[in-house]
Amino acid sequence: MHAPAALHLADVHGLDGVLALASFVLGAVGLTLVALAAPIAGMTCGAVGVVGGLWGQLVSRTRSERFLDVIGLVAAALAFVLGAANGNLAFSG
Fold first, then answer.
1. Which residue in 1, 70, 73, 78 has its CB near the most CB atoms, within 10 A?
2. Per the domain annotation, does 7 fall within a domain?
3. Residue 90 — left, alpha, or beta (φ > 0 → left; ψ -120 to 50 → alpha)?
4. What is the mean pLDDT of residues 9-32?
5. Is residue 39 part of a domain?
């Protein structure tokens, strides 16, 4: 068993890397929009980031892609939840 290597983005594959980076960016933008009092736009970015991040997680081939996917997924999910809460969107019916 060898020691884990550092995060190497040179091993990223074309579409896999784009999906990982897109989910990360959408999560960050979504959180920023929620913080700047635009909850609906932040929630939308979060929803798109979650869907893209889940697909990226499904097709990723390297550890660095999966690592970036998970960070983006968490940020996007937080943006979606906080945007829904601050935008007065209720799922209770």
1. 73
2. no
3. beta
4. 84
5. yes
